Every structure is written in C-alpha cells, then in structure tokens.
C-alpha cells in the first residue's frame, strides 16, 4: 500500500484483518473493499456495509463487476476440483454471471479465454495451462480451496515469472478448509492462512 501503485485493495478474507486494512487504507489514502464471509461485530453497530460479497452464490457476480470496473477483457479461469465440488459451483456461478452480463446491453463484455481444471499432481498439464495464460492474458481468476494448492500455484507462477506487477490474480474464496487453519490442523491465532513461499 505504501510503496506500490495500487488503486484499490481487495480483502483480506477475515474480519480481524479487515479492521487493520480499514485503518491502513485511511492512512495511505487507498480504496479498500472488504471481502469477508462473516460480518465482524464492530460493523454490526453501524449503518455502513462495505462488502463485495457474503455468500458463494454472489461471488461470481461480484468478481465480474471487478473485471468490468477495470475493463479486463480477456479472462482465463483456473480452478481445482474435489469431491465437494465447491470450486466447480463457484466457477459455474461466475460463468452464469458472465453469460447474463453478455446478454445485457453492456458497453463492456469480458471474454473467458480459458476455463481449466488444474491438478496439483500433473505438473506438465499445470505448466502448459500457465503457459497458455501467460501468452493470452495478464489477469487470471483462481479458485482453490486448500492453502497447499494456493501455495503450489504461487510457486509455479513465480517460477514462470508471473509474479511481477504485470499480472493480477483474482482469487475467489470464502472461509473453507483452506482459510484460518494451519496445515497440521491447528488454529492460527489471527485466522489468517499461512502462506510461506520457499523460492530456490
């Protein structure tokens, strides 16, 4: 916030950290949009609601509004799937929102350049998908439940030199198995996901 050229900060996805971000956005005069699943107690006493989304159903529509606001026209979408298919449902809601947005008489219509399920265990396919994204777009929508999956993505993106200021990764997540828990199942005191990255 201090040294970067960000116009807006979205998140983080937990109420305690959102309070800190609200103060920082005021100090550094940057716009901040809270992205939380649970409304924090301190906001229940006010008439102000400053959230992008509070449910999985509306996250697709909200993500599309962010894409539209910044006029990001070519959007790849990558996600992981599992037996719960929560990622699939959220991506489906995004696709439905994209279709209905295109049907409306809008002056801007984003195009989904790639919609791909990635598999952490298939390194070649994962790398090919990231190469396609690198060739087509600089903005990517992600949906990954587990912190280990998000870490794996960040490591691969860093290895492909996709972690500089040219790239934007819009991660669609709400509190789930990957948020607020350590890898060993221990609670994290501040409810933030540990995200250590070891780059060699």
CATH class of the largest domain: Alpha Beta
Shape: globular
Structural class: alpha/beta
Order of helices and strands: EHEHHEHEHEHE
Number of helices: 6
What is the helix fraction of residues, given as a range? 25-40%
Pfam family, one: ANF_receptor
Subcellular location: Membrane
Protein name: Receptor ligand binding region domain-containing protein
InterPro entries: ANF_lig-bd_rcpt, Peripla_BP_I
Notes on the protein architecture:
This protein has helices spanning 15-28, 41-44, 56-69, 86-103, 123-136, 147-159, and strands spanning 8-10, 31-33, 74-79, 111-117, 139-143, 168-171. It has 200 residues and is α/β, with parallel strands linked by helices. It has two domains: 7-52, no CATH class; 55-171, 3-Layer(aba) Sandwich (Rossmann fold). The strands form two sheets. It has a four-stranded parallel sheet, with helices on both faces. It has a two-stranded parallel sheet with strand order 1-2. α4 (86-103) links the parallel β3 (74-79) and β4. α3 (56-69) crosses α4.
Quick description:
It holds the Pfam family ANF_receptor. With 200 residues, the chain is an alpha/beta fold.
Keywords:
Rossmann fold; 2 domains; alpha/beta; disordered C terminus; two-stranded parallel ribbon; globular; 200 residues; four-stranded parallel β-sheet
């Amino acid at each position: 916030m201090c040294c970067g050229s960000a116009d807006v900060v979205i998140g983080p996805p937990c109420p305690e950290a959102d309070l800190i971000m609200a103060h920082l956005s005021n100090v550094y005069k940057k716009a901040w949009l809270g992205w939380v699943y649970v409304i924090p107690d301190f906001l229940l006493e006010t008439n102000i609601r400053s959230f992008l989304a509070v449910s999985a159903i509306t996250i697709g529509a909200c993500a599309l509004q962010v894409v539209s606001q910044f006029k990001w026209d070519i959007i790849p979408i990558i996600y992981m799937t599992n037996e719960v298919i929560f990622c699939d449902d959220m991506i489906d809601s995004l696709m439905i929102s994209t279709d209905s947005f295109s049907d409306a008489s809008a002056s801007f219509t984003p195009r989904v350049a790639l919609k791909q399920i990635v598999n952490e265990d298939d390194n070649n396919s994962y790398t090919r998908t990231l190469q396609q994204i690198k060739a087509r777009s600089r903005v990517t929508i992600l949906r990954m439940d587990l912190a280990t999956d998000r870490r794996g993505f960040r490591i691969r993106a860093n290895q492909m030199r996709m972690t500089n200021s040219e790239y934007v990764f819009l991660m669609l997540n709400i509190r789930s198995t990957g948020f607020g828990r350590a890898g060993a199942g221990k609670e994290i005191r501040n409810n933030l996901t540990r995200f250590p990255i070891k780059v060699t």
